[in-house]
Amino acid sequence: MKETFFLQTPPGLEKLAKKELELKFPGLAPQQALPSAQMERGGLSIELPVTIGLTLNYWLKIPNRILLRFAHFKCRDIPKLFNKVSKMDWSPFYAGQKVNFHISSHQSRLFDDRKISKALEDGLAQYLKRQEPKEKAKRRAHSFGSWHIYCRFEEDWCTLSIDTSGERLGLRGYKSDVGLAPLRENLAAALFLFTSLSEKEGPYHRDKIKALTLMDPFCGSGSLLTETALFYEPNLFRNYAFEFFPSWEQKNSPLKDLRRPSALNLDLPYFLVGSDIENARITTAHQNFKAAGIIEDEEDHILIQGDILDKEFCQRMAKNIFGAQKSNPVHAWCITNPPYGDRIKQPLTGPQLLENLNDWGPWQRIGLLLPADQKLPKKVGHYQQHSRLLFEHGGLKVAFTLYEPHPKS
Ligand SMILES: C[S@@+](CC[C@H](N)C(=O)[O-])C[C@H]1O[C@@H](n2cnc3c(N)ncnc32)[C@H](O)[C@@H]1O
Predict the structure, then answer these.
(1) Is the shortest distance between the CB of 183 and ligand 1 below 6 Å?
(2) What is the model's pLDDT at position 204?
(3) How many domains does the chain have?
(4) Does this model's pTM top 0.90?
């Protein structure tokens, strides 16, 4: 039986999230044709067998959460909502644990969050009176601390969804510390995929890997580098809400066959280079690399303190990356999230930074994440603009602008 899942994504990244699904799905479910996913604002909806839909939590790096839509009914008043909720079979997901409600309403008679919330709470309490959950189911559900139910009213229709993720998926579980203005992990993963899709040969897929050097001169805690290295790995550094669904305790539950995937431990030929003016950030990036298990081999990366305004430092780094270019061509990207100037002063304007990077060597791609209203040139030195990705980061409209080598250079 198929269920409807909603892959909630940051606004602006819906299309990219769909690409990620299409890219990873064949490996995830080889016997299953990928059903078409419908793009909606803020996410994708897709019908999948329940075990496959839940497994997406391990593999997809761009969504914020994965919701399971389990009820859709006409509802014009609060008593009806209470009635419906109290009579529904909640046993697969609910055994009396504390849940957070997320309510939204669009062109509906029901819009008062407090009243809706109260009807949901009372309905669940009434349900529990009718059907006392088994001790085992209670224990399982209570041993997890992040439960969310989404209740959406659209005109006269109510949709109830249970969150299968728990904490948002961008919290991967490997980070011990962050800097002042860290980039969310799911956004970092999106920038990697966007850059990868821009290459003529197609994305860096795990089945046709080629060597890639990735440089981030404002690496902070190292999100862009770490997320690149882990993009095709399942995220096993944390738990997910569905792993605590009471339905695991039910006889004949389809979840019984569900297993955590094993890490692929792909030995990808990435050479990761990160620098930051703050020594503390470099220490953090080192710790995060280690916690994420990506630096077994010290030759696969350089993490170093350095100032982008220091010419001698930039020349040294360029030599590290492109030194052997003549005998052994390097496929290198520089993708980065410079300070915007709100919490940390922006050391160079976008055009100045591009001029600086133009002098380093033959990048295949340069990508800058900056506020969308900062003007960037179409051409700089050997590079021309390739594409832009617009989305929101921390409530601010930002643009990731990609440059490629100019054909004549
Ligand atoms: C927006 S943060 C980058 C965050 C990073 N992507 C992460 O996820 O942690 C910008 C970083 O640039 C660093 N920075 C500021 N001025 C710099 C400079 N002149 N040279 C190199 N790094 C600099 C800051 O220390 C900060 O860590």
Answers:
(1) yes
(2) 58
(3) 2
(4) yes
> Is ligand 1 within 6 A of the CB of residue 220?
yes
272 in any annotated domain: yes
State the DSSP string of 241-280.
Answer: GGGG-GGGGSTT-GGGG--PPPP------EEEEEEES-HH
Ligand 1 contact via 371 beta carbon (within 6 Å): no
Q: Is 179 within the bounds of a domain? A: no
Please report, for the domain that includes residue 205, its CATH number. Answer: 3.40.50.150
Contacts of 352 (CB under 8 A, 6+ apart): none
Probe ligand 1: pick from 276, 311, 316, max atoms within 8 Å of CB? 276
Pick from 149, 152, 157: nearest CA to 76: 157
Give CA–CA dist 209/193, Å, rounded. 14
Distance 278 CA to ligand 1 centre (A): 8
> Is 170 touching ligand 1 by the criterion CB < 6 Å?
no
CA–centroid distance, residue 222 to ligand 1 (Å): 10
Regarding the beta carbon of 318 and ligand 1, being less than 6 Å apart is answered no
Q: What is the CATH number of the domain that holds 87?
A: 3.30.2130.30
* Ligand 1 neighbourhood includes 186 CB (under 6 angstroms): no
Q: Which of 111, 131, 163 is the last residue of a domain?
A: 163
pLDDT digits 0-9 by tens, 124-176: 999 999 999 999 999 999 999 999 999 999 999 999 999 999 999 999 998 87
What is the structure's pLDDT at 63? 98
Q: Are both 224 and 307 inside the same structural domain?
A: yes
Residues near 75 by Cβ (< 8 Å), separated by ≥ 6? 81, 84, 110, 153, 156, 157, 158
Domain interval for residue 77: 2-163
Tallying the residues shown for the chain, one arrives at 409
**CA-closest residue to ligand 1 atom 12:** 218
Same domain, 137 and 103: yes
Residue 282, ligand 1, Cβ within 6 A: no
- Summarised one tens digit per residue, pLDDT across range 340-360 is 877 788 899 999 999 999 999
